[in-house]
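Following the same procedure, the fold was encoded as tokens, giving this record:
***
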Amino acid sequence: MKQRFLEFLNSTKEYISNFDWNTYYRNNKMKIIMTVIGVVVLCFYATLFINAVSKANIVPQSETEQLTNEEEQTSEKNEVKDNENKNEMFHSPYSDESVPADLKEKINQMVLTPGSTGNTDLDDMVDEIVGKVCAENMSVYDKIKNIYDYLHYYSQVTDEQGIDDMGNTFADLLYESELDLEIVYRANRLLKNGYRGDSRDIASLFTILLKRIGVDAHYVSGHDYNYGYVAIMLDNEYYVFDLANEEKSADNTLNRYEKFAKNIINYPEQYTVYKIEAYMALSKNFARLKNFKFDIQISGLGHNYTKSMTYKDTTNETDNIISENLAWNIEKTQSVKVSGKVSDSTQMNTWKLNVYYYDLKNQFIGSVPIYNETTEDTQNEHIISASYIGTMRIEYQVMDENNHQCKYIVTISVKDNQVEPVTSGGQNPTTTNRVTGNQNSTTNPITNPGTEYPTTSNGIKPTINNETTPMTEPITKPQTDFITEPMTDPITESKTEPSTEPITEPITETSTEPVTEPTTEIPTESEAESVTEPAETNFETDSVSD
């Protein structure tokens, strides 16, 4: 055998060495090329097959991995099944034989008043739940029980969760009560998390669902025990629904209703009237905060100031105050008109308008309360007179029934209105009254801004700070009162200090009228002559000097 094999190898070797390769290549050129192409294609497909096998991970899994995958697939199937069931009409798998008949009768006697949260997204989700849990022909008890069973069946109680991002989630949802905002936030979070939440989240959603069908339900919670529940009143007694603490079997087939509509009298250590009523007072049934708008307009002397402000729900009071300094520089005794208008507010509003006066050194002089009333009016208007030289600060505010207020602080500078006439000689002299000896100003003879009361349209006197600039009695006598006073002192003064300035024609007319009019009131004729003669002599002397 070995000898034959050696002979075969030798003959093969001899055949290969004597083989004419050139002739074979020329005769079989196409066959050789096709063979090479076939080998290349075979290698390419072999590479693709190897990659596909590696990606498919056809490597046999361990027993633990196989169980994990089976559990995940089962969980996904259950979730799909649950979602399909949630979209259909819910039929409770629980029996309520343990619920007393008299309790059912009390619940059925309740009068329903449906309500909503005002949050469109949440109300839509709540309506969807109510649509598949409550039928129109159901009794009040059946509706409440079915909602209770629905949440008990699908909800899963988790650890306590905070509400740190509540303000960011519902920044534009303004309620009169912060508790109502928390209830909405918790209920929304429970639905977004697939009915997974703490007891307060579940109680919040249960409260909203009951209110949606018309039950006067109240969310209750506290810091002493870390859970939430729902309370309603039946025959002047409180009954609680502690849904998160209701016993739940592993297969969701058992509900003993041990926490369903229980009278708090039987649970004095767990539920109290004080706690329930405290939370009832905090809730406003999702009443929306009305963002009222306050418009102001100040006008006068060719000036006009118009501003609008909308109340902002914020803890910073300055966000609802507008303070501006108007460079009008009005004159003393001139008036401005202040008008205000409120829109989108409650029926009763408190209006306050005060004016504060400061002198040129910014020292407080006094204040005037122009207006302070609580009315149903949506607008009012007032005239304010500038009574002091310095600064007039106007504070105008409106407060609604929720103690939310908007305020304007407007500051206007006030200048002296005394204008001295300019003579032909280029001087601004002040003329002397020949009868009284007082200097005549062109407008108001009172030059001290702190010696008279400010004058307003309603005639209210200001409150004065006596430590800064004390007030004296207002001057009530008319300027013509000097006629009835004795003439001796002014005449003596005119003799000792005669005027060296040229006497114009208006002064002659002014001095002659006071002398002739009061002659009937002079007691003796001799005294009248003593008054008249020096005066005429004095005038003649002046005319000679001219």
The first strand starts at residue 156 and ends at 157. The two ends are 175 Å apart (CA to CA).
